[in-house]
Amino acid sequence: MDSLRQIFFQECEEQLAELESGLLEIEGGSEDPEIVNAVFRAVHSIKGGAGAFALEDLVRFAHVFETVLDEVRKGRLSTASPVTETLLRAADVLADLVRVARDGGNVNEERIHTSADELAALSGAPIGANAEPEEEVSFEDFGFTPVAMDFPVFDDIAVVDTVSVEAEAEPDATTYTISFRPHPGLYTNANEPVVLLRELSRLGDAQIVCDTSTIPTLEELEAEGSYLAWTITLTTTHEEDDVRSIFEFVDGDCDLEIITGNAASSNDEPAGVDDDIAALLARVRGEFTEPVDESASPAASAADVVVGLAGSATAETAAAAIPSTPIIEAEAAKPTPEAAKTPPPAKAEKAAGSEAPSTNQTIRVDLDRVDRLMNLVGELVINQAMLSQRLTDAGLARDSEFATGLDEFEQLTHDIQEGVMAIRAQPVKSVFQRMPRLVREVAAITGKKVRLVTEGEDTEVDKTVIERLADPLTHMIRNAIDHGLESPEKRLAAGKREEGLVRLSASHRSGRIVIDIADDGAGINRQRVRAIAEEKGLIQPNAQLTDEEVDNLIFLPGFSTASTVSDISGRGVGMDVVKKSIQALGGRVSITSRPGEGSTFTLSLPLTLAVLYGMVVTVAEQTLVVPLTSIVETLKPKAGDIHGFGGDSRVISMRNNFLPLIDVGRELGYRSQPADPGAGVALLVESDGGAHSALMVDAIQGQRQIVIKSLEENYGRVPGVAAATILGDGRVALILDVDAIVAASRTGASNSETAFALAG
Amino acid sequence: MTKTILTVDDSRTMREMLLLALQEAGFNVLQAEDGMMGLEVLKDRQADVIITDINMPRLDGFGFIEHVRRDSTHRAVPILVLTTESDAEKKSRARSAGATGWIVKPFHPVKLVDAIRRVSA
Known about the structure:
A: 43% helix
């Protein structure tokens, strides 16, 4: 039951997302009927599931909502702007109701009523939030008590017991005389007189007489006609309604008359042949244990067969057991000619049982299993690296059989890894989809007009990354609207469109996913940011800071302007928390801002948290790994390319460009004296905002795929170090956080500790 | 002799509920997410009873039933319509499409099995 609930709520989330994106498309002017249908279905599905879980509030609201959507679907209600706004609000309320149903808590009754009333006004029907759904929805809990269903009748149609004519009638039993004449439509809809008769006989003692009098001659016989009728004398303690309910599905597809009392005396018996249902059913089963009646006329046998054929797919068996002449008639007479072509159930069963009943194109797998697989693949990669290392150490030639085998092994490992990563990858859509609602809410509270544009929703990234993106993104979008965008009046005064624009986009760039949150607002008010930073003692009053440095002040812990500006962006979380959570994902945040034109926050994140390609380097006899994604090129600098630049700073000239040269050994505190640049290797790296720098290392050992092992669980966050890995020879190597190192060196501080303190 | 039931419903919750109730009652269960997929399943599988939803993407329940009824292999298979709609119009549409019977959501497992029994030989 719990897992069903879980599935239900998961599905609700999907349906809500579908609902919202559909409504947004409709709001955007789409008139695709399929979108309206999808929106309708989303609400409909939620209602259907909610009914099964007896979630009354949810069912009621969904019902009202669905009614309006049905009007839209039928083209009776236009989707002009006030209507879509009402629908979007209703979608939000529905989402709230789902959340409350799942997590508990209180619903905002007023909001629900307002929305329900709005909806009711639209549909023109007097349906308020308290109105009962028009259809009968029984709120009984779908308890899933194991249903111990033992229906021998499925396996054994012998119902002889229940039709024993001699059985004494119950004292309060009633006798009904039922005349039942199917129309051809009853057969074409796959209803079965035999099944109905069987059900009837379960109610009590049944005497069944088949009327074959209307069977025409062969020439006049229509293959799909209906020529049989039955009169059943049923003695039962059940009510007439119970008797009628058996014919519920065929109501309208037959002539049915139920008379209380034994109206039909044996004298009224139709001119056909008496037939005992036990024998009849036995024949349906193909059990001709005893010839029906040796003395019966061919006509009688024919009628019997007709019953058998009409009744079941076992017609072939039945037919085979009948003397030859009548068969021809019988086959011609069967109401559904295809019945005979249907493979006998036993055969169908065998086919069904031999294959897995899986027809879905997707399977749902527990995330733990994928993670376990991911971990194992990680170990495999390390193992493979060790093997390669040993091979090299053993001095085996690169073209030896072992080496080629190992190359293939390496390729396979890599493929497996990519395969597993692809399992974990999901489009960022799931997070992006939550943002339109947020934008509407924040816009409503701040009184600003906002349009949200999303791009690259299908960009895929690891599931964990996606999950942990939701909070920072939410915060940054709030910020963009609350702090970034101006009020409509100010915008008009500045010659901008009244409606502010927030653009949320995702794309893949050099093995990472880059997410931009851009607004076309006023840009960062640097004076104000500076003033706040000074006031809070984050910088010295006379500090010389570039615009970029001022902008980055907002990421400092303790900077949060939330309390002084409004309560929307704040909620006790500052940009420093955003930055930390992005860093925890191995990502970076950068900001570009232009006064009057707006700001763009850029998040750059790894596609997976498990592996990366790294350049293994030596620095001061330590082995370090530099993520390959940040390296643009490597070069061996000539002494003449290196220039002093005041203090310890040095730059390297490359193709008429001067780039800062960062001595990794000194930045990390491995050595106090600057290394000899002529003896080392420079790694040209690209860091936040696309700026290039050169990292100075002593030597390059090679490139390889490495499995990331987090240090934070055991050591906390180490400045300049992103994580660690295990190398092929079993040693642990640290993975450099290139951006942090570049940022630290940029501050010009010779002491790495203070540099990192400011950056972090 | 285990019967095989094909369930066609776009709601995963509903599919799972049907699966649980039907397996509990001892049936084999095949699943499809919409009418198209339902027809796809019937290309190489046999069902003793089909239970289908009405509102579905791509091919809805009405269309699905009509297709099955035109298919010589499956036209005699009983089809139960699983629907939240209890209005007469939907029922009569379902019937003219070829539905054998119907189950109104939310269904109770006992009633579900009862309905299956009332259409399957």
